[in-house]
Amino acid sequence: MSIAAAYTGALRLFPYAAIFGLTLFIRVRGIATHFWMLWDQIRDWGIALGPITGLPLVGPPTHFRGYTIGPAFYWILWGLRVTVGPWFDNLPHAGGIGQALLQSAADVLLLAAVWKRTRSLPIALLTVVLLATSAYDVALAPLVWNPVMGSILAKAATALVLLEWPRGSAVRIALVAAIAWSAVHSYTGAVYVAGAVFAAILVPSLFERRWRALVRDVAVIAGVVAVLQLPWAVHRFSSRDGAPVMGVVTGSLSQVLTGEASPRAELSVRGYVDAFSFIQGFPSRVPAAGWVLLAAAVITGVRYWRDPALLTALLFPQALAIVGYALFQGGLDHYYYLSLMPAAVLTIVLATAIPDRWGLARNVVAWVMLAAALAAVPGRLAFAATLHRMPEYAPLVEGSRRAVRQRQPMRAIETEFTLPAPSDPTFVYRILGGHIDPASPWVARIRTTGDVDFRKD
């Protein structure tokens, strides 16, 4: 290989390395001092600390009763604990770092996909910058939380479809389908993106009337979903657990189908628009977000009508979500829509990008738009620093380390500060090797400085 070829190759790899490194940095900076350790994080990281044989066969419980449809979230989290955890004493923020690593890797995939589709580096960078520097995304990315994992897997599956990576290969189709369905395992709300990914895989064969390939691809996707549902089936028949799988979905559908409730289309549209504005607009909302989304969908649909796979991957999940949440009878929270953000943002970017035939003007405008997005990054990151932070985490970790060094079981771990509810001041202490013994006369009280007072009762 010539020096020029090596230089060109390194230059082309630089944007990927830069995006991975910079997005990872903004997500994990300070995580060891402010990790948001609430009950969900304690429960799930506690499961990941156990042996692989002790992992559940279903996903995390939901606040609507029941649980998610499969255990992929726990499988992945256990893998992160094994590979990343030992570098950070297996403390819960190690899971946040591992999850942020996956998020940044998904960003690299999306960068490659948009760059390939648009043949424009600034447009690809603009897409990733808008997504990765969203204050809400930055705040949630390093959490041990299944909705975030669902959005990561959904983003990766979407990027692989946009790269046309699975096309013509049953093995690759199976891998992408597995990633997409694992997103649903992690978080039920990712089902709209998973459905769009499946449709985007099938659409080229459908439009090209390659019926044999279409039947094969449908069979591959169905087979992958069936295999991934085997753990749930084993759980269902072995435990006789009567809790509903995806109870949030089945309960709402039952109410609508029996006439107990009516679809709420207007509320669903308003919920999606508000979530987009909230997630992507920090530190201020997106003005006229609904009209922006609608206009972008129309323009992108007209511009890319010859690319049904692209339109399916971008527009179909948004439409599915609006229909799906219209049938949903609960309240709509912003994080329900995390997995839809790549499709929404890329739709807007493609709609506002100058057409290819404008040549130099297209690139100039794209770089100007990227510069404007980068100018907003400091404000977005500053706002992210005010969201979902637990500054008590740092003294809790330091105080727990000091209590463990006493080599004396404690009856309790108390704190001078108030931990956000629900949390557990003993969790970190026990991970670091400390023992809680109700018969022990010793109590450790951790100060805001991380110092510890010991008393014997």
Give a written overview of the molecule:
There is one protein chain. The chain has 457 residues and is mainly alpha-helical. The protein has two domains: 11-384, no CATH class; 393-456, no CATH class. It has 20 helices and three strands. It has helices at residues 3-28, 31-34, 39-48, 72-83, 92-118, 121-132, 135-140, 146-162, 170-186, 191-207, 211-228, 230-239, 247-257, 265-281, 289-303, 308-327, 341-352, 360-384, 393-405, 427-431; strands at residues 412-415, 442-446, 452-456. The chain has a three-stranded mixed sheet, covered by helices on one side. Strand 2 (442-446) and strand 3 (452-456) form a beta hairpin. Helix 10 (191-207) runs antiparallel to helix 16. The model has no long low-confidence stretch (mean pLDDT 91).
Which tags fit this structure?
about 450 residues; mainly alpha; 2 domains; 20 helices
Task: Present the secondary structure layout.
Layout: H1 3-28, H2 31-34, H3 39-48, H4 72-83, H5 92-118, H6 121-132, H7 135-140, H8 146-162, H9 170-186, H10 191-207, H11 211-228, H12 230-239, H13 247-257, H14 265-281, H15 289-303, H16 308-327, H17 341-352, H18 360-384, H19 393-405, E1 412-415, H20 427-431, E2 442-446, E3 452-456
Parallel strand pairs: 1-2
Antiparallel strand pairs: 2-3
Helix pairs in contact: 1-5, 3-4, 4-5, 5-6, 5-8, 6-17, 6-18, 8-9, 8-10, 9-10, 9-11, 10-11, 10-16, 14-16, 15-17, 16-17
